[in-house]
Structures are given as C-alpha cells and as structure tokens.
Amino acid sequence: MLQELAEELENQQKINQKIKKAATYPAILMIFAVIAVVILLMYVMPTVVELFPSQDSLPSITKFMLNISDFLKIYWFVLAIVII
Residue 84 and residue 66: Cα distance in Å, rounded? Predict the structure, then answer.
C-alpha cells in the first residue's frame, strides 16, 4: 500500500517536472515578445510618426497604437506591475 503511494507520488513529480520544462520555452518567448512590443510602442512608433506632417491623415489603427504608446509612456509602472 505505501509502496504504491510512493510510486504514485514519484509519477506525479515526474509529470510536474515535464510540464514545467514544456512551459518554460513558451513563457520565455512570451516575455521577449512583450518586451519587443513595448520597445516598439514606446520608442520606435513615436519616432516614425514624426515623419508624417499631419497626424490627421494617419489611419485609425495607427492613431490607436499611438494612444497605447502615450499610455505606456505615462503609466509604464502599471505594465510592470501587471507583468510581475
């Protein structure tokens, strides 16, 4: 009886380890993707938009991305808290 319980616990530990290993790579990719998007929104996007003479002529999706960029510049700490 105790032997079966010990074997079951060992099997559960092995399964948990496999799950952690399988989830590590996607988690790392997600972190780097979020970092890349934040860098694009906070630094690259505003620089590119300055090249356009009038922001009224920008597509609505671009204006939306600029609003997100402005939000992140002001409330960057909210993003940091959400990530943590």
Answer: 24
Tell me how far apart the alpha carbons of residues 49 and 61 are, in angstroms, rounded to a whole number.
13
The rounded Cα 34 to chain-centroid distance in angstroms is: 3
Tens-digit pLDDT profile for residues 26-66: 999 998 998 898 888 888 888 887 787 776 777 888 888 88
Q: Write down the domain spans for the chain.
A: 2-83
Helices (H), 1-84: 2-39, 45-49, 60-74, 76-83
What pTM, to 2 d.p., does this model score?
0.63
